[in-house]
Amino acid sequence: MKLYFWDNTIKPHWLPDSLEAAICDDISERFRAPAAQVIPRDDEPFRIDRGGPMLMSAEWISVDLEGTPFEVPVRDVEDFYWELKAARRGGTGRKTYYKMHGWLHVVVLTPEMRETLLAAWGGRIQEYRDRASAEADKFVHAVAEINKHPNIRLSTPQKNLAPAKSELN
């Protein structure tokens, strides 16, 4: 896996070597972007999240994708699962791929990687939902403890602490 940077108008993309030409060509054609700056990241996990408030001790769920750990916060697994399940295939005719859009970057997956994630997450959505809920409770408790200080006032954006798509089912 490598991390690709273009200019400031395109989010960085994590992608496997097998999709390099297809993605670089696609972005170059659609955005008239200059050549990407490539940063090899084969030696560390790649992560994606939705952003927002999170405890430093937040739990991350890891799935092996072609020998590289792919990690998502437990609070975001359900949201990414439904996004990936409904994702339209992309591709330029040479290669088929799927994209997951996070807060700071995009992860590009081969069809096989997509199926691996869907299989790993699919049967455990309720478990991840429960773990995310417990983590949200810890966050709310931590904020309440901080708010006991007379000079500090933090708020807890409750709607952002649970998976967004869970209400649609």
Would you write up a description of this structure?
The chain is an alpha+beta fold and 169 residues long. It contains four helices and nine strands; from the N terminus they run ββαββββαβββαα. It has one domain (2-126).
Task: Report the span from N to C terminus.
Answer: 33 Å
Strand order of the largest sheet: 3-1-2-9-8-7
Largest sheet: 6 strands, mixed
Number of domains: 1
In quaternary terms, these chains amount to single chain
Helix/strand/pairing category = alpha+beta
**Mean pLDDT figure:** 81
Radius of gyration (CA) equals: 18 Å
Entry summary:
By secondary structure, the chain is of the alpha+beta class. It has helices at 20-31, 74-86, 111-122, 125-146, and strands at residues 2-5, 13-15, 37-40, 46-47, 60-65, 68-73, 90-91, 96-101, 106-109.
Question: Tags for this entry?
Answer:
single chain, alpha+beta, 6-stranded mixed beta sheet, 3-stranded mixed beta sheet, 4 helices, 9 strands, globular
Write the layout of secondary structure elements.
Layout: E1 2-5, E2 13-15, H1 20-31, E3 37-40, E4 46-47, E5 60-65, E6 68-73, H2 74-86, E7 90-91, E8 96-101, E9 106-109, H3 111-122, H4 125-146
Parallel strand pairs: 2-9, 4-6
Antiparallel strand pairs: 1-2, 1-3, 5-6, 7-8, 8-9
